[in-house]
Amino acid sequence: MTYKTFETERLLLRPTIEKDSDLIFKLLNTPKWLTYIGDRNIGSLEDAKKYIKAKMIPQLERLGYGNYTVIRKSDDSKLGSCGIYDREGVTGVDIGFAFLPEYEKKGYGFEAASKIMTVAFSEFGIERIQAYTSKNNIASQKLLEKLGLKQTGTTHLPDDEEELFLYRIDKFNA
Description:
The chain is of the alpha+beta class. It is 32% helix and 28% strand.
């Protein structure tokens, strides 16, 4: 099956596939990922491929959307990832994003997440988007607020003891 790819002025957002294992390996081992999201035990490119096959591709196949690799159109550099996630044990879907350190603070996160939110509402029929972030992850909180999400309280994800901020936006408020 062919899945949709999306474009912005500077970026290409395409579903993450096994050939993106280099990016996933680097991204999931960045200090910010390990601090704010958690260690996924991705110690090799082969581990990254297995993670993509087990955690990313099944949702894409089931729902038609999921994790997108963010690519800069000017030079085909893989900058990070952004997507809409349907987590097991959680009601609703959430938006998430992560970028390699050298591509942070350049507006790529806002550009990618804005596009993902737009297509979530317009093409995937999603009515509400949530987001979760560590109470210490100020950069993520600022980006969520810039995207129009509002903090509505705190929550815990299944099998996670950390209390996270919960953000939401409804389609009619976007």
